[in-house]
């Protein structure tokens, strides 16, 4: 299985980079996992609705340029479907069973995802009704993908 995590912005925090690198290393036994960063749009603190939409649109175009036609897209969004770790594992297992070997998880920038990205998504996923920094979500996501593979293989992992 080839998994891409397409995300807006550069990761600067060393502790997050280290955590993500650790889970990527662990995931190597199960899947090829690639993190693709697209540039974020610089924006002032105060934005109008129109400016916010324009920024999401530009970031969305960059994201969609990295998504291949035959890729199953899972967009992370606060309004997405919440799932347990076991349900995520089951979703990934079903995708593999039905020949969907390319999966892209998409994490938007601080303003979220554009309508075009949401329309391209085959499914949406929410980790919580709370808002998290998109940089932190990379670590949380890669850990949950690792956990999903462990669950699917019947391998022990802390609960």
From TrEMBL:
Coiled-coil segments: none
Enzyme Commission number, as recorded: 2.1.1.177
Annotated S-adenosyl-L-methionine binding sites: 76, 108, 127-132
GO molecular function: rRNA (pseudouridine-N3-)-methyltransferase activity
Any Pfam family hit: SPOUT_MTase
Family annotation (Gene3D superfamilies): 3.40.1280.10
Keyword Nucleotide-binding in record: no
Taxonomic superkingdom: Bacteria
Classification via CDD domains: RlmH-like
Keywords from the named record: Cytoplasm, Methyltransferase, rRNA processing, S-adenosyl-L-methionine, Transferase
Compartment(s) where it occurs, according to its Swiss-Prot or TrEMBL record: Cytoplasm
Entry's Gene Ontology cellular component terms: cytoplasm
Enzymatic reactions: pseudouridine(1915) in 23S rRNA + S-adenosyl-L-methionine = N(3)-methylpseudouridine(1915) in 23S rRNA + S-adenosyl-L-homocysteine + H(+)
Main location: cytoplasm
Homology family: Belongs to the RNA methyltransferase RlmH family.
Function: Specifically methylates the pseudouridine at position 1915 (m3Psi1915) in 23S rRNA.
The protein's assembly and partners: Homodimer.
Name of the protein described by the UniProt record: Ribosomal RNA large subunit methyltransferase H
Lineage of source species: Bacteria, Bacillati, Bacillota, Bacilli, Bacillales
